[in-house]
Amino acid sequence: MTGQKQKMLAGELYIADDPELAADNRRISAWMDRYNASNTLSQPEREALMAEAFARVGEGCNIRPPFYCDYGYNISLGRGVFLNFNCCILDVVPVTIGDMTQIGPGVQILTADHPRDPAQRRQMLEFGRPIAIGANVWIGGGAMILPGVTIGDDAIIGSGSVVTRDVPAGGVAVGNPARLRVTG
């Protein structure tokens, strides 16, 4: 029998309050307590803290506290990634953010999803779909990136946008739901 954590990592239906996942969540909660009190630490000291929690942290990453996540170990940050204050990443499956991407304050990156079938929801089942954000992307404050979305290199996501589908490289997406804007 596959454990709940293995099911979660595979993007299958799983039960989130499984003891192993609860222990992982307590671990990252203690880490967030330390990280979110790190305003006075130097940038290299904060990078070292990020390296404790995340799958990958490229050189020069900067996340301004407060910051929130589910597990941390599914987050991979490229070189020079910047997340402004109050960002939240629900990382039940991989979240990859490419080099030099800039993310505004209050952005939510949400891989966690729930079954559409009410009987499955009553069983407290959920699942995740990975999110990939390319290099040199700019995501405006308050935007929300929903499960399974891929955002291509050099794209721009407008402030407050709700991104429900993929955005191609160089695309500009704005609104709720976010729609591609023709630029020129």
Automatic annotation (TrEMBL):
GO terms for cellular component: cytosol. One of its GO terms (molecular function) is acetyltransferase activity. SUPFAM superfamilies: Trimeric LpxA-like enzymes. CDD domains: LbH_MAT_GAT. It holds the Pfam family Hexapep. Coiled coil: none annotated. Belongs to the transferase hexapeptide repeat family. This is Nodulation protein L. The lineage of its organism: Bacteria, Pseudomonadati, Pseudomonadota, Alphaproteobacteria, Hyphomicrobiales. The gene is maa.
